[in-house]
């Protein structure tokens, strides 16, 4: 790219994201992550939760930029938008029954999971996740987009897909598992 990335305007950043410029994607991803990690850690979370929430938020923002759903209003709009989506996703996790009822896994198990998933460079993880998402089957892709990117509730998803709410919940879970497996398999 040749330009100093921190000097890019919001429109230049958005255009680079729309063309999947890996240098810009890596820059945006790595420069905004520390704020999200701090947010999650200050609010009952762990580094692993921070990474998961941030990855989901980043994919959401990436999709919104690519589809034109996000339009910047100032020079820090993209960063603020990414932070706001991350914060909302973390709030959803905190409110979830699964988070409230979760039990701590022993440290050895966490260490193995962490080594498998998080010891690779950030841009490789991002590319793997985006690539896996693009390869998901159409039903999973549409369900995840509807839930995560369009921010529709499971009830709204169920109505849109003409299925029961519990079925929508189960399908969303299976699609996320499939996406995780594809990301892990690509490593």
Class of the largest domain in CATH?
Answer: Mainly Alpha
The count of helical stretches stands at: 10
The largest β sheet comes out as: none
The fold-level CATH name of the largest domain is: Rna Polymerase Sigma Factor, Chain: A
Structural class: mainly alpha
CATH hierarchy: architecture of the largest domain: Orthogonal Bundle
The proportion of strand residues reads under 5%
Please state the CA-atom Rg, rounded to the nearest Å.
17 Å
What this model shows, in words?
The chain has 10 helices and no strands. With 187 residues, it is mostly helical. It has 2 domains: 7-102, RNA polymerase sigma factor, region 2, helix turn helix motif (Rna Polymerase Sigma Factor, Chain: A, Orthogonal Bundle); 106-187, Orthogonal Bundle (Arc Repressor Mutant, subunit A). It is globular and about 50 Å long.
Secondary structure: elements and pairs:
Layout: H1 10-18, H2 22-42, H3 47-67, H4 77-95, H5 97-101, H6 107-118, H7 122-135, H8 138-149, H9 154-161, H10 165-185
Helix pairs in contact: 2-3, 2-4, 2-7, 3-4, 7-10, 8-10, 9-10
Structure summarized in a few sentences:
The chain is mostly helical. It has 2 domains: 7-102, Orthogonal Bundle (Rna Polymerase Sigma Factor, Chain: A); 106-187, Arc Repressor Mutant, subunit A (Orthogonal Bundle), CATH 1.10.10. The protein has 10 helices and no strands.
């Amino acid at each position: 790219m040749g330009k100093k990335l921190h000097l890019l305007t919001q429109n230049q950043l958005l255009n680079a994201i729309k063309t999947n410029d890996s240098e810009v994607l890596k820059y945006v991803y790595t420069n905004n992550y520390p704020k999200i990690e701090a947010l999650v850690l200050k609010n009952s979370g762990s580094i692993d939760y921070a990474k998961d929430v941030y990855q989901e938020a980043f994919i959401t923002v990436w999709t919104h930029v690519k589809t034109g759903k996000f339009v910047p209003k100032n020079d820090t709009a993209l960063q603020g938008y990414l932070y706001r989506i991350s914060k909302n996703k973390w709030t959803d996790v905190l409110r979830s029954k699964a988070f409230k009822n979760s039990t701590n896994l022993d440290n050895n198990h966490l260490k193995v999971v962490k080594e498998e998933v998080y010891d690779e460079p950030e841009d490789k993880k991002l590319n793997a996740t985006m690539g896996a998402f693009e390869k998901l089957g159409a039903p999973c892709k549409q369900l995840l987009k509807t839930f995560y990117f369009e921010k529709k509730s499971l009830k709204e998803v169920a109505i849109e897909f003409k299925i029961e709410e519990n079925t929508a919940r189960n399908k969303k879970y299976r699609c996320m598992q499939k996406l995780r497996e594809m990301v892990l398999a690509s490593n």
